[in-house]
Amino acid sequence: MRKAERLFEIVQLLRIVREPISAQHIANELGSSKRSVYRDIAALKAQDVPIRGEAGVGYVLEKGFDMPPLMLTSDEMDAAVLGAHWVASRGEPDLAKAALNLLAKIEVVVPERLRAHVLEPAMSIAPVVPTFEVVNSSSLRNAIRRHRKVTLVYEGASGVPTERIVWPILLGYRDAGRILAAWCELRNGFRYFRTDRMISADILEQRIPENALSLRARWRSEMDQERASYSIQTQKDG
């Protein structure tokens, strides 16, 4: 059981009893050790969960406490807010809107002591000039989730548009623009397509014949080989 799950279960146990319960009782319920329970109780107290009691006596939760849905450290909160701001400034419209909605929800559910991390964050994202895209990247994300083929009209470096059917794997986000990693039926291999060079992208109802996990594993294997080859070549050049 992960730490976050243990903390949640401890609070749930304390909420349903009126008398103090011992660390041993909690450990038995969770299938953990007394030492782990002591550490977890200390972690909960550090997050302002009103637990009274001590080792050897037992623990009780003050009445009226409702465990917040999000129990985050300050660093975790900063990471979540920074990530959401990055997506809001660099994602396509649908994803950017979702990031702002996420920030609003985080503000509502976090403890009061962490709310300033959302309202007055200690970090910021540098502004960028957005790239112009004809194709909405949200449709590509939808194709990836549904494991569907995509008919792509793409303008390569030569400036000549080509039509090809691809099996989308992953949409990579950069500071400016996005790149689609996909298996290309035309080239019979993995290729990368800049979204700002896509003229059109139509999601087909035809499912990708290869299992999603298998396809992604093949892509990662080839990517790792390319990185290893590049690293060896760089060392030789150096």
TrEMBL record:
SUPFAM superfamilies (UniProt xref): Winged helix' DNA-binding domain
Pfam families tied to this protein: HTH_11 (PF08279), WYL (PF13280)
Limits of the WYL domain: 139-201
GO molecular function per UniProt: DNA binding
Keyword flag DNA-binding: yes
InterPro entries linked: CBASS_pafABC_assoc_protein, HTH_11, WH-like_DNA-bd_sf, WH_DNA-bd_sf, WYL_dom
Keywords recorded for this protein, A-Z: DNA-binding
Helix-turn-helix type domain mapped to chain residues: 6-59
Keyword DNA-binding: yes
PANTHER family on file: PROTEIN PAFB (PTHR34580:SF3), PTHR34580
Protein name: Predicted DNA-binding transcriptional regulator YafY, contains an HTH and WYL domains
Organism (species): Jannaschia faecimaris
